[in-house]
Amino acid sequence: MDNDFTYTFIEPDEEMADFVENLGTFQNHSDEAKEVVIIPDGRIDLFFSKSPSEPFHITLLGLETYPEQRYIAPHTTAFIVSFKPLAVEYILNTSIADLLNIGKELPSDFWNFKAEDLKDFNHCCTKAIHKIKELLPQKTDERKLRLFELVYSSKGEMSVQELSEKTGWSSRQINRYFTKQLGLSLKAYSTILRFRASLEHIAQGRLFPELNYTDQNHFIKEVKKFSGVAPKELSKNKNDRFVLLSVLKGK
């Protein structure tokens, strides 16, 4: 692990688990920018960050559909809430359809966070959890809960038709919901989740498809599409560029 770049992630309690995947922090302790590759993972990230070159700011990032190289400024500290798709409608009360592969700046007092909060990860977690629990809906559409439960548990391998049958929600309505809320189809989202599930195998050095890929070539092509490199190079994770893979390796 790169000692100049540290990160910590914790999972939420059961009450928030349908809406939040994890809360995390990272710090670039170095005097140099840290190169990272952001790869699609099916999460919607809310970033609170600051560095000597960038004032405290809050950014909502939409879903990614392709890899993107980014640089984290020297001495950056960030706190991140990684949401599941249901949170878009029920916690954030917005659509992120126009945020595919991009982010938008939120007001600097969003959720009443301040720059000094970033000094203490536990404090950030407590503050975010309190706010999210305030925003939790009293009632959630059971079809949507069931849909995402199945999409996640099947690691994106269940067909749209099967999901429709198991939730009692038509394929057309499901895709309309996905397109309106997230900016992509259910099938496209499921493909991202399948890729992400494959990362767990790649992180352990298992470079062959273990999920429902047609063949090895199909697997390699999809890994390249979402990470920019072949499984073997991804597994090496030179300089910890692929932070998500580093986290999975550390599990």
Q: Which helices and strands, and how do they pair?
A:
Layout: E1 5-10, E2 20-28, E3 34-38, E4 44-51, E5 54-61, E6 68-72, E7 77-83, H1 86-90, E8 103-106, H2 121-135, H3 142-153, H4 160-167, H5 171-182, H6 186-203, H7 216-227, H8 231-236, H9 243-249
Query: Nearest-angstrom radius of gyration?
Result: 18 Å
CATH class of the largest domain: Mainly Beta
User: Tally of extended strands?
Assistant: 8
Task: Give the overall shape, derived from the CA principal axes.
Answer: globular
The largest sheet, given as strand count, sense and whether it forms a barrel, is: 6 strands, antiparallel
Strand order of the largest sheet: 1-2-7-4-5-8
Beta content comes to: 15-25%
By helix and strand content, what is the structural category?
alpha+beta
Fraction in helix: 25-40%
CATH topology of the largest domain: Jelly Rolls
* Count of DSSP-assigned helices: 9
Number of domains: 2
Verbal overview:
The strands form two sheets. The chain has a six-stranded antiparallel β-sheet. A two-stranded antiparallel sheet has the order 3-6. Helix 6 crosses helix 9. The two termini are 13 Å apart. With 251 residues, it is an alpha+beta fold. The mean pLDDT is 93. The chain contains nine helices and eight strands. It has two domains: 5-135, Jelly Rolls; 142-229, Homeodomain-like (Arc Repressor Mutant, subunit A), CATH 1.10.10.
